Amino acid sequence: MRTLIAIALVSSTTWAAAAPLPATAAAALDGRTLVQRGVLAYREAAYAAAVATLEQARATQRLSAEELAECRFYLAASFVALGSMNAARRELRALVDANPGYELPQYTSPKVVTLFREVREEVENRPRLRALPPVARGAVLAVRFEAARTGGTAYGSAFWRWRGERAWRELPLRHGDASTRDDLVGELPLREGTLRAGDPTVELWAEARAPQGLAQLASAERPLEVGVPSAPGLRVTRGSVARSWWLWTIVGAVAAGGAATGLYFALRPTPPATTDATFSFGFR
Amino acid sequence: MRAPLIATALLVAACGGAPDGAVVRATMALSGASLDAASVRSIGLTVVGGDGASCPRALALGHPIDDPTLEIVAHALFVLDGAPKSLRVPSGRALVFYAEAFRTTDGERPRVGRGCAEATLTGPHADITVAITDEN
Fold this sequence. Notes:
Oligomer: heterodimer
Shape of chain A: globular
Strand content of chain A: 25-35%
Helix content of chain A: 25-40%
Structural class of chain B: alpha+beta
Strand content of chain B: 35-45%
Number of strands of chain B: 6
Radius of gyration of chain A: 25 Å
Helix content of chain B: 10-25%
Largest sheet of chain A: 5 strands, antiparallel
Structural class of chain A: alpha+beta
Distance between the termini of chain B: 21 Å
Largest sheet of chain B: 5 strands, antiparallel
């Protein structure tokens, strides 16, 4: 009988600890409150709790630029306290990338200050890639990037796709004219792939290797978006009648203009798709 | 081992209407589980991504955070208090969910067990189960 009771207790406890959890959002608190709680946990030397809370705050994706900077700094400081220096470096790098003039809070621990200075110096001396305005010529989109702090010649590639496509196409970039050695240029053959009617948007990111290191502009997860005009020769997946009418009106207008008039360009990051994952844990 | 297993099966059957998951969990508790679930108070979860991210790699070192080639996507400390444990993570990419079990609610070391699961999530919601193995 005792065995039976013990088994019942173990079973019920296991059930309570590892039962599948209902999919209610963990982010019941807003990001700002979570950041404040994370900072408080850090100040109370509860570093693991601070990391958890701050990661949760960041996952809400609703932090202002200042809140995100604060979140990253205290994440880094918590990682330093936990001895995870690689993670601390990663947070500080992201912090300095987004906030080049970031000033450390008062009374920052000397260990964090030292690491922050190292990372800032590394970021400031790292090669950079900057997008110059693209130009559409018929079914070709000419893209140009300015590489800086390369320490020599940079070689790179652009990766692009029509929005809605899954695969990325690689386009090796060549150097611009001799006077602008650091310029990397390429022409995206827009006839490749299939653009969706009503959504003539190219997603794009680029990377370049140089003697001083790797430079990257945007990423596969957060590409740049370039709105391009439709042009004769592009393969278009027909959408609704209304959409097709709209699309082909633009095609006609562009063709009549015979040039890139009426084009528009927009460079903005795409918000990444996310899933709310609910966890259950089994023990053995 | 067989006697308690039968006893539990009888117990679950006697309770009646138990969902399938109850049987699974009872079996886990009786099959020589050396990690006592009741003593685990918190779980440190690290979500890892990047090229070549996998459970074998995440488990190769003391903690995947020590592998500079892995990308730490998210990190959370879950207190096992019966409340839902959710985390928003990127979808559409291969992720590794590395979990460590602790005896305290604040994740104080040393850990008592760890486990790992791999998944590529799609859609707005997903359920992930991580099996944690005793390390002692």
